[in-house]
Automatic annotation (TrEMBL):
<dbReference type="InterPro" id="IPR011009">
    <property type="entry name" value="Kinase-like_dom_sf"/>
</dbReference>
<feature type="transmembrane region" description="Helical">
    <location>
        <begin position="41"/>
        <end position="59"/>
    </location>
</feature>
<dbReference type="InterPro" id="IPR050154">
    <property type="entry name" value="UbiB_kinase"/>
</dbReference>
<dbReference type="Pfam" id="PF03109">
    <property type="entry name" value="ABC1"/>
</dbReference>
<dbReference type="GO" id="GO:0016301">
    <property type="term" value="F:kinase activity"/>
</dbReference>
<keyword id="KW-0808">Transferase</keyword>
<keyword id="KW-1133">Transmembrane helix</keyword>
<comment type="similarity">
    <text>Belongs to the protein kinase superfamily. ADCK protein kinase family.</text>
</comment>
<keyword id="KW-0418">Kinase</keyword>
<keyword id="KW-0472">Membrane</keyword>
<feature type="region of interest" description="Disordered">
    <location>
        <begin position="1"/>
        <end position="21"/>
    </location>
</feature>
<dbReference type="InterPro" id="IPR004147">
    <property type="entry name" value="ABC1_dom"/>
</dbReference>
<feature type="domain" description="ABC1 atypical kinase-like">
    <location>
        <begin position="132"/>
        <end position="373"/>
    </location>
</feature>
<keyword id="KW-0812">Transmembrane</keyword>
<feature type="transmembrane region" description="Helical">
    <location>
        <begin position="66"/>
        <end position="83"/>
    </location>
</feature>
<protein>
    <submittedName>
        <fullName>AarF/ABC1/UbiB kinase family protein</fullName>
    </submittedName>
</protein>
Amino acid sequence: MQGPDSVDSAGHPPESPDDEPFELLEEKAVPGLLRRFLTTHHHLLGLLFGGFAAFVRMGKKNERKGCLFWVIRLIYWCGYPFLNKKITTLPFPVQLRRRLELLGPTYVKLGQVLSLREDILPRSITDELKNLLDRLPAVSFERYRELIEEGLGRKSEDMFVWISPRTLGSASIAQTHKARTVRGEEVILKVVKPGIKKTLKTDATLIAFLGSFLQIILPQFQPKKVLNEFTDYTLREVDLRLEANNAETFAANFRDLPDVRFPRIYREYSCESVLCMEFFDGVKPDSAAARELPERDRYHLIEMGAAAIIRMLYKDGFFHADLHPGNLLILKGHLCGFIDLGMVGRFEDNLRRTMLYYYYCLVTGDAENAARYLTSVAQPAHNGKPREFQRAVEDISRRWQRASNFQDFSLAQLIMESVNMGGKYRMYFPMEMVLMVKALITFEGVGNLLMPGFDVAEVSKKEISKIFIGQFHPVRLLKESLRGAPEVVDALVKAPLLITQTLRFMEHATQTREDAPLAGARGTLFAGFCLLSGTVVFVGAPNFWPLGTVLFLKAAWLVFRRT
């Protein structure tokens, strides 16, 4: 990496083209929708016939016979002359990975996302997709500077003393270099590659069409939903202003936890296609330098990491969705730094609370309620089996509790296997759940690198208990109740009309005995009061729905008791 001391007399780092670790990107015209469709269609057909080839090879090996085998074998031989033999002779998961790489950055990104979906895809496929290339060709340094100047509308010399010619990273969407601003700040410049936005939009259209088609053939895997989630996430990553927003949101959420750092964003040097952010000088947690730290410092880092990730997931509902050891840094002073914040996950408040209760029940040993909360998150298919799924999750949770140590069965492994069982019982989880599992697996893996055999449940119990208890703090409950204040006021304004109409209805529906004319009126008034109170509770304080339900049932009983 070029540092501030390795600059020439003009203030620029020396050119070192021989040190460039990435292949040069050959910039081509972005293909139109029709041409892209034909290319995609070609690889899909190749993959289909490659699947037939794998089926035929397996059938021969197992001496399979039957009508279906011979029909597929006939179809395969009809297309054999047109197939790429180098690819179709490979195992099917490898064929899928290779064709995604040939289709380009969008499909590489798609494969990386699909590699997380072990809940709906076979393990052999997800394992192979994890081998997808993440070091893609980079644009030349001259072209990189041009992209910066085009995006910001200024000469690079007016903004930066130097920009390192050495590429730090080049992935599907952007590439990064180190630089120094004219004010002397060390920064990282992230620039979207040319043509990628148009390519992504074209591919998103084709992927949406593909999802609708696959939904008809393979509805049990919910391909339409999975592919729509992918395009939503990926299209957001192209606008680097959103990553800047994410970094500032994280920094605001953690302003009371100084040991957890997120890069500062330099808005004056950032735009939709260029992101300028603070350079973090640190080491990766899987490096030898990290493992050589004193045990006390390593344990402190694990505690900070646990506090940060659990807080993101279960308190803020806004979390880093692309966590891996390369996106975590150990900074000077033993601080924990998070980088590459383009992909984030969000839990709606109800889902966040449910997942908080699920995780709390897990670490405190309540397997029954943990299974109940996890089942409530899943969306059952028309032939789903929620009760069987809940029992299976409860069984596997109890097995985890009986495990003697981390190596036998880890907490992240438990959650991953629980979610993965959803496919078996036709219970499907939102993408955010899968990203949550990835975050926990990363944290557990990094923690085990720093301190082999550490217990993530024990480390995280303190933080999750604090968040859990905080859910029932009177001030928090009052704030949540006041969120519905406008609806409560509206209900109170309409209350007189509601009471009048309710009383008229009840007067017609009930008959008052002549010897006690006020008894019926008294019951009617009380029923009206229960009905109105129940309405106010449901509108203004939905967290107290059991009370509202009791009031509605009481009103109904008073009415129909007298009919």
